[in-house]
Amino acid sequence: MKLIKNISILILLLVSSLSMAQVKFEAKVSKKKLGVNERLRIDFEMNKDGDNFVPPDFKDFQVVGGPNTSVSNFWSNGKRSYTKTYSYFLAPKKQGSFTIKQAQIEIDGQVYKTFPVTIKVTKAIDKPKNPNDPVYIASKNIHLVAEVSKSNPYLNEAITVIYKLYVAPTVAANIVGDKQTPQYKDFWNQNIEVKAFRPENGKYNDEDYRYVILKKVVLYPQKTGKLKLEPYVLDLNVEVPTSRYDIFGNRIVRKVPQSITSGSRTINVKPLPEQGKPADFNGAVGNFTLNVSSTKMSLDAGESLQAKVEVSGKGNLKLFELPKLSVPSSLEVYEPEHAENVRTNLGGMQGRISDIYTIVPQYKGKYPIPEVSFSYFDVNSKTYKRLTSNEIIIDVVNGPSSVTTSESSTDNSIKQTVTTNSNTFAFIKTNSDWVATNKKPFFKSNLFWSLLLLPLLLIPIAILLRNTREKRNADVVGNKRRKADRLAKKYLSEAKKALGQKEAFYIALEKAFHNYLKAKLHIETSDFNKEKIQDLLLERNVEQSVVSEFISILENCELARYTPITQVTMQNDYDKSVKTIGAIDKQIR
Question: Does the keyword field hold Glycoprotein (predicted)?
Fold first, then answer.
């Protein structure tokens, strides 16, 4: 009995030790139900160190913070406790029930995945208004305003929308990115480039503010009635001063993520008046002039001329068709070539559009090009106006005279005998003129002997390649380094593809450094700190300047997640990474 009891205790200890050695990788969320105006924290936690972490696609959420990495590694009562966590802060994009899919990690050569997590997002929740709360302070001191030049325009009349960001003097703001950009449904739209954000002083609700113009757009309504302008939504990091001070007496500033919206606007579009509308009106709205011209007034039959119908001025130039040119049937006319020279600014479209017709007369004589009429609606006078061109006479000096109908009918009554060709296949060549160019036989030629001996020469080369491959496969350490090198190059290439996407770029760059250091210094994730990396590189005879450059790039990766980064900065960090890794490869011993 005692023996059985000892065996049972031994089995129990073995099972418990095995259970302690199990790998755990799970997703934990701060809450499973939240309002659309709240934030969610999700942690991906593991009990053993892993590589190549792949987060899920947060397509239904906006990532407002993270990934933040934390490692806990300590011993208690002779037992090691290790925890590594990747944390993200998410803001829901809309209401509904959403599933955060699996994340994955590679631990000891095995891939582990978390379980999906379902989150329910409800309507916005009223939060208590604490005047000392930095989030409340930020919401009261930052405003995004859409200024509309005219809220009651006519159909196809130009209006301008200017988006301004107002910031109170007591706070500062950094733009993270556009969360929602208006699509301007039912409007023809043209963005006006804003080359730089220039702060200016202004008033908001009769209080002093600074503002910048973020976006300008010119709209032409294409429907009548009440049309809605979608809101413009921005993500910001707002720096709010707190009531605390550091040891030097400077006020401590807290960064608060904030989403602000311009709100939706309604544009009431009036239809064009029916009274006085011309029958040939085709939708032109603005102030225009009409010009019809010809490149030649006199020419010979068979020659060509170009006739141009041109409308110039200010209005919806790209949104209507030009009047057609009518010419006599004895003139051959080709499809017109359309040309536009239109620029768009805050006043709307300005410039000219034209149709250019190529005309070829067949017979001599004088041919009139009739007058052309063009109608448009003048917004200033609120009336329709008509423009009419002058008649143009084309004089064809030389050429055949026009054939009368009687002559043509007489000519058509004359019939001619058709003679057939008896030699129907005369075009086919039946005799060849081939001439032999090589009299020497292939047997025993240089090419014959080369093809015969080539397989024998390839045998020692194949043996050499096989020995080299076997030797390479036996080099376990070398293979591990080469694999890590390939992985580092892979992540550098992924970083290059992600240029312009801050989060993805710096995550890929960090992974490239991680795998590169594993290959060169045999350093594991748990030892991934700047001090140890610096000491190991200096021990391997890498120059101090190169080591400092490498450490600075690592610091940039850490800071970039919390500060606004431009495309130029990301390109510089990528170029420095490639240059620094190359320098370490040359110097490391």
Answer: no
Per the listing, tokens 């969320």 go with: 29
pLDDT in tens, 129-144: 666 678 788 888 999 9
Q: In this structure, is residue 128 part of a structural domain?
A: no
What are the pLDDT digits (tens) for 50-63?
888 899 988 888 88
pLDDT at 484 over 80: no
Interatomic CA distance for residues 44 and 26, integer angstroms = 6
Same domain, 116 and 47: yes
Q: What is the CA radius of gyration of the chain?
A: 40
Residue 240 — very low, low, confident or very high, per pLDDT cuts 50/70/90?
A: confident
Helices (H), 152-261: none
Angle between helices 544-559 and 567-587 (to 10 degrees): 150
Residue 112: closest CA among 72, 53, 60, 59: 53
Residues ≥6 apart with Cβ < 8 Å to 546? 537, 580, 583, 584, 587
Q: Measuring CA to CA, how many Å separate 532 from each of 79, 451, 525?
A: 25, 60, 12
Would 495 be classed as within a structural domain? yes
In one letter, which amino acid is 11? I
Compute how many other C-beta atoms are within 10 angstroms of the C-beta atom of residue 535.
11
State yes or no: pLDDT of 312 exceeds 80. yes
Residue type, 97: S
Short-list 399, 391, 350, CA closest to 368: 391
Residues 148 and 261 in one domain: yes
d(CA 255, CA 426): 91
Task: Report the residue count for the chain.
Answer: 589
Q: What is the distance, to the nearest Å, from the Cα of residue 65 to the centroid of all Cα atoms in its chain?
A: 22
Report the share of the chain in percent with pLDDT over 90. 34
Q: How many domains does the chain have?
A: 4
- For residue 181, CA distances in Å to 58, 184, 194 come to 19, 9, 15
Cα separation of 387 and 278, whole Å? 12
**What H or E segment, with its residue span, contains residue 504?**
helix 502-521
**Reduced to 3 DSSP states, what percent helix, strand and coil does the chain have, rounded to the nearest 5?**
25, 40, 35
What is the C-alpha to C-alpha distance for residues 188 and 556, in angstroms, rounded to an integer?
43
Same domain, 254 and 159: yes
Flag whether 78 is in a domain. Answer: yes
> How high is the pLDDT of residue 130?
62
Q: What is the pTM of this model?
A: 0.51
C-alpha to C-alpha distance for 56 and 33, rounded to whole angstroms:
19
In a domain, 447, yes or no: no
Q: What is the pLDDT of residues 414-459, one digit of tens each?
A: 333 334 444 444 445 556 565 555 556 666 677 778 877 888 788 8
Residue with tokens 């005309």: 359
Residues near 470 by beta carbon (within 8 Å), at least 6 away in sequence: none
What does DSSP assign to residue 442? S
98 and 213 in a single domain? The answer is no
> CB atoms < 10 A from the CB of 232, how many?
24
Q: Which residues contact 494 (CB under 8 A, 6 or more apart)?
A: 508, 512
Beta strands 33-35 and 117-122: pairing type? parallel
Distance (Å, rounded) from C-alpha 367 to C-alpha 360? 12
Domain extent at residue 488: 476-587
pLDDT at 134: 80
